[in-house]
Automatic annotation (TrEMBL):
Spans through the membrane: 12-30, 42-69, 90-115, 135-155
Domain of life: Bacteria
Protein name per Swiss-Prot or TrEMBL: Uncharacterized protein
Keywords: Membrane, Transmembrane, Transmembrane helix
Record's keyword annotation contains Transmembrane helix: yes
Keyword Membrane: yes
Amino acid sequence: MTKFAKFYGANPLHLLAMIFCFVLGLAVVYTAGPMTFWNTDIWWQSIAVWFVGAAVAHDLVLFPLYAVADLSLRSGLDAMRGRRRSRPPLVPVLNYIRVPVLATGLTFLMFFPGIIEQGKEAYVAATGLTQEPYLLRWIVLVAVMFASSAVLYAIRCAIVQKRGSSPVSATER
């Protein structure tokens, strides 16, 4: 088992899960038919083109931006920590910032057309409603996510302080 993990780089269950995912994907393509994913009239509106484009855009553009943003956040927290105290905090704040920021970005991506009121006429014709509430509702959602994260961080700090000062492991930082 250790030879396999050393050769493959992960647990055999990872390989099994990857094989299952590829088989499931191929089953979807087979069931729906390959031409379902390709628009013969307007090629750039094809699901396949958007899927490949999204993968390339994510890997070549967005992932480096995530990495830079995360590095900036960690460096900033380390700089603040260095000025204030010499030992690491008992409860690391990093994930309490990462999660709501990620959720903010994902919800913005999902609701972007509504937030900028794209397709206003079609939306009103289809629903009889306007897109005006989207921006305010998204801002409230973001505020709730950050407030929830802050409350959870405060609760965790209180629990750790009540138990006593036991340092966090390197993986939690």
